[in-house]
Automatic annotation (TrEMBL):
Domain RecA family profile residues, every copy: 78-259
Protein name as catalogued: DNA repair protein XRCC3
Family membership noted in the UniProt record: Belongs to the RecA family. RAD51 subfamily.
Keyword Nucleotide-binding: yes
TM stretches of this protein: none
Organism annotation: Octodon degus (Degu)
SUPFAM superfamilies reported for this sequence: C-terminal domain of RNA polymerase alpha subunit, P-loop containing nucleoside triphosphate hydrolases
Keyword Disulfide bond: no
Any one GO cellular component localisation term in the record: Rad51C-XRCC3 complex
GO molecular function: ATP binding; ATP-dependent DNA damage sensor activity; four-way junction DNA binding
Gene for this chain: Xrcc3
Compartments (UniProt record): Cytoplasm, Perinuclear region; Mitochondrion; Nucleus
GO biological process: double-strand break repair via synthesis-dependent strand annealing; resolution of mitotic recombination intermediates; t-circle formation; telomere maintenance via recombination
């Protein structure tokens, strides 16, 4: 912002002009003594100038958490969510995925991670009144080919899954035309994709969701050629780029992640699984979700013909407590079934905290 737009004494403005200082940023990047020497202003005038510049950048006055909640209509982006396409799953996540930040979806193979990611690629295309963002999705595959056959099956089943949406609304959406697919088998290709290709789609409003499936694959492929310091640097760079994209374009970022065995932990098998990439990657996340299938003995007790249940668990999030929900994967998509309270989680609170690292 130009300094002449601030409410300052004409004498101060004249001194700034003589010193060739034009913007608020230039003023705030200088210390008070340096600014005083360069402009020739008195110490009180210099302090008033710095205060005026800082007050303008701050914008609104400080608010308490209660005031933010009571005035949440003033901050719609902070409270808007992307629906998962299922009311039960949306309730578990407080309405869906936040628009600003990286959400990780981790779990073992066949737990339903890709199924949920595909469902989100369709949910984002719905109108806002039905939980969508009226835009497409970017899907980056890093290890397997894109499951196009399953996608078209989900598209055909949308009227059954989204019974809450009028049929004419579903028919008007060209789901297949607004999913942009990229393949990135190594770290350099992935970074190039999120640094150049994805911003072009987001800036044009063609997409409002980014899915990386999976984020660990490029780093695991290059584990031998990268030392731990270099890998951490690449992870930090990737996380910073994804967070900037999400914040700039108010677009959720979903990163599917693999899990690794934590051999030092004792207990049932599903309690010593932890997401890959370690604490460096965990520090980049806004929210971590984990999915898992029920144990083999529990699956056998369901009987023949029963659909095996899976569990979606909130490991950490700034706006949610640890909680979980059972869900099933069927022909029409992912549906939540029974919500579980925090006392029914597989992991104890201590193990939930350890899972973050």
């Amino acid at each position: 912002m130009e300094l002449d737009q601030l409410d300052l004494n004409p004498r101060v403005l004249a001194a700034l002009k003589r010193a060739r200082l034009k913007t608020v940023k230039e003023v705030l990047c200088m210390s008070a003594p340096d600014l005083q020497r360069r402009t020739g202003l008195s110490s009180p005038d210099t302090q008033r100038l710095l205060t005026a510049a800082a007050t303008h950048l701050r914008g609104h006055c400080m608010l308490t958490a209660l005031q933010l909640y009571q005035q949440r209509e003033r901050f719609p982006a902070q409270h808007q969510r992307l629906s998962l396409g299922c009311p039960r799953l949306d309730r578990l996540l407080g309405g869906g995925l936040p628009l600003d930040g990286i959400t990780e979806l981790a779990g073992r193979s066949s737990a339903g991670k890709t199924q949920l990611a595909l469902q989100l690629c369709l949910a984002v295309q719905f109108p806002r009144q039905h939980g969508g963002l009226e835009a497409g999705a970017v899907y980056i595959c890093t290890e397997d080919i894109f499951p196009s056959k399953r996608l078209w099956q989900l598209i055909a089943q949308q009227p059954r899954l989204r019974a809450d949406v009028p049929a004419e609304v579903i028919q008007s959406i060209q789901f297949g035309d607004r999913i942009f697919i990229e393949h990135a088998a190594d770290v350099d290709t992935l970074m190039e994709c999120v640094s150049y290709k994805v911003p072009m789609l987001l800036s044009r409003g063609l997409a409002r969701l980014l899915v990386v499936d999976s984020v660990a694959a490029p780093f695991r492929c290059e584990l031998d050629s990268l030392d731990f310091v270099a890998r951490a640097r690449h992870l930090q760079s990737l996380g910073a780029t994804l967070r900037q994209l999400s914040s700039t374009f108010q677009s959720p970022v979903l990163c599917v992640n693999q899990v690794a065995e934590a051999m030092e932990q004792l207990g049932p098998q599903d309690e010593h699984l932890r997401p890959a990439l370690g604490i460096t990657w965990a520090n980049q996340l806004l929210m971590r979700l984990m999915v898992d299938r029920i144990r083999e003995e529990e699956e056998a007790a369901l009987g023949p013909g029963s659909r095996p249940a899976r569990t979606l668990r909130v490991v950490f999030a700034p706006h949610l407590p640890p909680c979980s929900c059972s869900y099933t994967v069927s022909e029409e998509g992912v549906r939540g079934t029974t919500a579980l309270d925090t006392g029914q989680l597989h992991s104890s609170p201590a193990k939930v905290l350890r899972a973050q690292f």
